[in-house]
Write the structure tokens for this entry.
Amino acid sequence: MVGPKHHHKSPPRIGLPMTKLKTHYDVVVVGSGYGASIAASRLARAGKRVCILERGEERWPGEYPEDTLKCASEVQFNGEHGQEGRRTGLYEIHKNKDQWAFVACGLGGTSLLNANTALKPEPRIWNDPVWPKEIREDQALLDQSFKHACDMLEPTPYPEDWPVLPKLATLEAQAKGAGVHDKFVRPPITVHFKDSLNPAGVYQKASTLTGNDTTGINDWSKNTTLMNYIPDAWNHGAEIFTCCNVVRIEHTKKKPKQKAPYVVYFEWQEQTREGFLHEHGAPTAPLFVTADIVVLGAGALGSTEILLRSNKSGLATSNHLGKHFSGNGDFLAFSYNGETLVNGVSMGDDDPKKFEHGVGPVITGLIDYRDTENVMDGYVVEEGAIPAQAALLLRTIYQVMSEKSSKSIKTNQDQSLQEKVERNARELASYVAGVYRGAMANTQTFLVMSHDDARGELELKDDRVRINWPGVGSSRNFSRLDGLLEPLAGAVRGTYVRDPLTAATDEAVVTVHPIGGCSMGRTGAQGAINHKGQVFTGQGEEVYEGLYVMDGAVMPMSLGVNPFLTISALAERACAILARDRGWTIKYEPTLTPIDFKTPQFPIAYNAQEANPDAHALAESLKKTSLQDVVDEDGELRGLLVSEPFPGEEKYGSSSSESESEAKPSRTLPKVFSTWGKGDDKKKAKEERREQRKKAGVSFTELLRGHLSTVILTEDFDTASSQARSAGSTMNVVLTLSTGPVEEFLKRTDHRARVVGTVSCRALSDEPMMIESGVFTIFTGTEDDPADECAILYKMGLLCASGERYRFEGRKPISTGHVIEGWIKPSKVLVTVYKIENGVETVFGRGKLGEHDDDFFTQITSVRGDTTSLAANIKAIKEFGVSTIGATVKTYLPFLNELQYPEDTHTRKTFKRERPTAQVFDVVASDGFKTRLTRYPGSKGPVLLLHGASVSSEIFATTLIPHNLCDYLIAHDYDVWLSDWRMSILVADSHKQSPIYGGARDHAAAIKIVQRETGVDTVQVIAHCVGSVTLWAGMLNGEIEGVGSLVSSQVATRPLVTTANKIKQNLQLVPLFDNVLGQDEFNCVTHSSSSASTETELPADDKASTTSSNTKGKKSLLDQAVDNALRFLPMPLQEYCNNAVCHRASFCFGLLWEHDKLSKNLHDNLDEILGSVNLESLKGLVHDWCKKQTLTNTEGQDLVTPENLKRAFENVPVLLIHGSKNQVFVPEATLKTVEQLRENNLPATAMTFDYKSMYRREVIDGYGHLDCILGDKAYKDVYPFILQHLEANLATTGYRTRREE
């Protein structure tokens, strides 16, 4: 069958990112070789939720290395000195003193590199008593299992009508010459010799005869498990995760909160992540997943190692675990430099078209010597192909060894002169013309499978599996095999050369077929597993019902043939019995339609709420914390059902693409996968590749170390961290963060990314905890955060192996403008951990992380792309890097940002309060100015609140903060009166020009109305800034009477300004705006040019409280110039922001607040608080009162005299409040006032007493000017001082209970 045409040059991806790993599966399969992939396929076909954990990488044809350097980089060694090379390298060599082993590491296991020969063992093998009787006595089931395996693997002999292969013809000639031609056969091999759809629904191509089978074939002809069982499992709903090295299995008894009896611990071996952790000296804590059934299929060495390690951790097993290891009698030899062409060196990275003859699959012929009287004396000899990458080295070794050999060419005297010349010429040709000429071209490889005594033992040493088999080299009768192979070499006048390693040591033996270690037995006294593959719990018949081994480890003896078909058959048999025991049905029908590698054809439905109620409840709680859109398309984050996907993400694995300019794979893909493009529509194919590049994402790893206290549970993170440090309660967090498609990541304002990893904290769990439903956001914040602060947020669930759950919340605050603190003194992550029990969350711990780590921005050096396309990865990393740097610059240097205007998109959050019905009173001052009073009746009071300039009574009553002063006083039963006097942006007369002293007349009229309406003689007053100085001026001038007690905020009699404001005074900026620029007011509110012609639209509830002062009009060039110039207005570095309204207010008055005291919500909506100020009043304030540092009347006479102070304030208790960081009026301003009041009005004998009760001053640490009123925490830090003063003077200045009106 011919598949549809394609244009894509990249293979599919069926492995999933770690963020999609679920908490629990029906079945977890470890490994992906023959046994493991069969288990995954068959159990997925039975409708079970299957997870495959493979320690290697996912590579498809076109991605296997072919040149020498690339192959060398893929080699890893495990020896007595430890592990060398990449842990996910494709070629793994186990070096031991006696027995070496070569295995593959990758999705597909050793099937990726084996020699394809599918032979059944000699039938007499099954009669050996080492096999459980259930196998010996049920030949029908075994035969059926072999049939199932062959149906999927499709072994077939090398076709007779295909080109003659020199190495195959040479082997046949050698068989004839040795007199054993009757034993020569073409064995069935798992290679495709035509383009066709295989039983799994994958199109494969005919072999190109490269001989690269043992290094990774790139022509799509090799029937590896990656071509059949693995995609079949995926197509039936199995989920595949690569780079997951399983370390141990834990068996737990069922608990109320623990559904699964098995916990599978694994290390995530992603290369960049591992390198980052190694560089930072951090141990790799294992992740875990739970399952009802675990199938170990990691190979003889891998599965045994896992069980040995599990046994050390408490898993009871048979004493036979690790024993009965066999090298399957493997033996390697060569016929060097014979007289016939062999062409037995693989093509490597050379183009097959350059070769006159094909090399062929590694094995195409076999001489069968198994018809011996004793079945254990039988063996098979197969021809092979030398990997091109090793041929150069072997060329020299063969020459040296042949010169010392006396096996076939007895002496030089046996050779004629012509023979000697020809042999030497061939050796020279191999050096001059390369390994495809001369002696190497005439070298035949003998691959021998025989028998050994299976007495090897696998054991753990330094926590790694080692093969212990003393004397295996001497115990094997190599001389017997030498004698049998000599005639084969001699038949073509070749020099017999033994395997170089064996020949050099006479002891060490190499095997490419390690089997045993978890051998079958009737009981635990005979083997490690039973005939079903279930692991024995000890020496008896009891087994772990859900723990299986299905791979070469189950063999109790050597087989004398290539073992993979037997491994496959026994795995098919075990799966059939497993399903039968549980009443499941496996569907064996082949897949007749091509697999769509974007969506499985037979997905398994999954209800997270039913499968894992606790996880579902946690996900739902996270939805309520504004994370509802951070989920998978199938509603899952590690098994948690949520609601919607990351935008732009595929539901399942997708094909990633390469740009046309990047290197192409050395072998073309087959005509497969109908979804990869149809016909010859190249334009469409290019568009698809472009779309795939948009989906490229990046990942990076972060390490956080610190302490967690379970004693200090308040929000005092410093104290909690100190307590935890003293108690040694550490917490280590290893996170890998994945952005998903970078294009979508950058669109999200909070830059959300997924998180996967572990948390180690003994205060929470003895074992490391898995992160589930983890979400990370960067440079984000909420409307409740300080105005100068954004944050890196970590929100995730923590799952313990015991089934307990916690919720982790971490916040790493980042202060805008704090360049020094941000880069040199990075902030720490403030951590809160909640314990979840019965759906209820309680605070369980507090602490801090990042106490010994570099700044976050140095940790993103582990960033990497997550596709197979180099171009797409580079593009994604570049976009991510540029965005991150840009966001960093904008965060720490906000004046470089675009200006933020009121109409720009931002969050507006209001905090509505229940208040008494408001009463509004019109106020007319003695000079005719019209203002107003708003009353909220209460049982205490009255108290009159006076605002400053360019604002309104909204500074006391705004609903943009959760706690304002008006509602604070109402909550304490006060009769609150809000004055909007002539400098209020809410009254029309604010636009009239007025001397600064005019405000005193408004206050006098307002107090009279309060007295009239309440019947009191004196009123308590709270006055801020200009409201305060105008009140003091009126009282000192005798125009204002009836003030019983006073709270003045920031300034009173001595308006002493900061140096910055003095500079502005000297620059004559107010006269400049008035006389030169022709302005009559300065508006703190501005709008962008693009929106200046539209009207400001506020919610209906707020429209009643606004006037036209802040509505948009045509924006002048002057306004534009001012806005842009004010970006660089000098101020403390940490106080820079990009809010245009904030800039204008700071220019007019000085910085009105410390940004860290203001909520982001208020800061983003300053246009609702601020407005314009008339220049006459501003001129009087700046160039009269502030310049003279005193208060004067309209005639310019100084009002701050001892006489006036005595008369006006002798019996008026005063509280002066001043922010320690005030950038408008320096703290000395109120200090001079309070000192003058005490010196002038208090007798020396009463100084101590009156200091505490009559004239007080409170400096509010860390606060500035207006934030003492509007600060997000002012209700805690400031308001109590005000309340204390009002309560202390209530008895003499007002009423306690409602008077009858």
